[in-house]
């Protein structure tokens, strides 16, 4: 949508709401009407100041895209998020202007909603001015400020002083699809409830249960939820985040997930020793290159993975593969049962790098949807359990993920996957890598 049209529509909506609520009326809104009028005037002021800034960004942000096929960068995102906020305000303003006479009009609720979006717009305005400083002070086309510069320090200092609670209260997830908002609300409510009980002498599951009892107030009070989330993100340490996200690793939750998810014939963990690999070059298969094992910070060490396959395929029950299993003796699963029919090698393999912010979780937390992917896509899945920070700082995890990818290329026959001899990219046409948030 044309940004000029958005700002023009917002100006019209502000005038309509102000005119409706400032005129003679016998509606019993009193102080709430004053709040709405004050809020709409603040929105007008923000809008008029933002229009030229947003227009300037919209004219140049494409120069900072990764390439023409990948239209994405921080400036573009900031403009799109601001536009989404404006559209939400327009929608809410039109509703107020059309329904304030209704007997069912929730005046206080709508005033609180509008005030929340006004606060969000104010913070987006501050972010846009910071981004404007960044784009003006950096060289043309340079997306990031160089580390250690005065601009970087000033940028971080100003960003840290901003009030971000408004983005985690009533406005949570406004920039995403409405279908995502309930999920985001569940995550944030769970996090702030867990943060309230964090540090008490309870087991992880005990804290989770106690958090469930205290979560009600964060459901009914979005402002409290936003303020508490801001406190948590600014004050609690890394161990809190590891503890929270690792709740999904508890035996009760993983056991329930396995019961509720699709059954698979192959599901076991692998430990690959840190040995150098020889792989042919894509440009000239007669030449090869040596891939060293991960070395960053702690030196050579094993790489852990999980293989999941809905159907048993050739190679997946071989002694050579089972020798890499972490279990001793090797796992006994449905795949080794005599009635399991062995399928031919798949032309595809899906390599998965789990989420958790590089500090928490393993493939165990993500088994549910990985099983579904393996069934629905009819492919084996190799999920990499890379080492976690802060014990294994960057770039250790990245090195392990790359090595796992190379190991999969080298040992495709063990994973139930084949690489076409006609491929010019040594199998890269037949492999999909997915990194989940």
Overall description:
This protein is an alpha/beta fold and 437 residues long. It has 14 helices and 7 strands. It has helices at 3-22, 31-60, 74-99, 107-137, 150-160, 181-197, 204-214, 216-220, 222-235, 238-245, 251-260, 319-322, 367-377, 396-410, and strands at 266-272, 277-280, 288-291, 303-309, 349-353, 381-385, 431-435. The protein has a 5-stranded mixed β-sheet. The protein has a two-stranded antiparallel ribbon with strand order 2-3. A hairpin with a 7-residue loop joins strand 2 (277-280) and strand 3 (288-291). Helix 2 runs parallel beside helix 4, helix 3 (74-99) packs antiparallel against helix 4 and helix 6 (181-197) packs across helix 9 (222-235). The relative contact order is 0.07.
Q: Work out the strand percent.
A: 5-15%
Q: Structural class of the secondary elements?
A: alpha/beta
Helix % is 40-55%
Largest sheet report: 5 strands, mixed
Lateral arrangement of strands in the main beta sheet: 1-4-6-5-7
| Distance between the ends | 29 Å
* Succession of helices and strands: HHHHHHHHHHHEEEEHEHEHE
The number of helical elements comes to: 14
Supply Rg: 27 Å
Number of strands: 7
Averaging pLDDT over every residue, what do you get?
A: 85
What form results from the Cα inertia axes? elongated
Poorly predicted residue ranges: 421-431
